[in-house]
Amino acid sequence: QVQLVESGGGLVQAGGSLRLSCAASGRTFSSYVMGWFRQAPGKERDLLATITWTGGRTYYADSVKGRFTISGDNAKNTVYLQMNSLKPEDTAVYYCAARSVLTYDYNYWGQGTQVTVSS
Prior knowledge:
Layout: E1 3-7, E2 10-13, E3 18-25, E4 32-39, E5 46-52, E6 58-60, E7 68-73, E8 78-83, E9 92-100, E10 108-109, E11 113-118
Parallel strand pairs: 2-11
Antiparallel strand pairs: 1-3, 3-8, 4-5, 4-9, 5-6, 7-8, 9-10, 9-11
């Protein structure tokens, strides 16, 4: 099975930046889509960005387009989320997830990492 471990969360001032990392292991990722999600208190878990290992095709939610960048490093089996121009509304638990390119459901999840943006 696929195992995912997030890191890089923390406390940052509004307007600042953070880079989250997701280390993956277990199975081949050549046919997988990797995604970043977040969930704030009292709100649904939202998809922020995705990337495919093959070709590096990316997707961004409108709420983060232009501020966040998803990328991958095959040599390190790691996916990153670079977050710039952070706002207090970005405060949430951020999750890394993975799915097969043949499905819509993300069936592998990391434990989450807290991101807090102060004003």
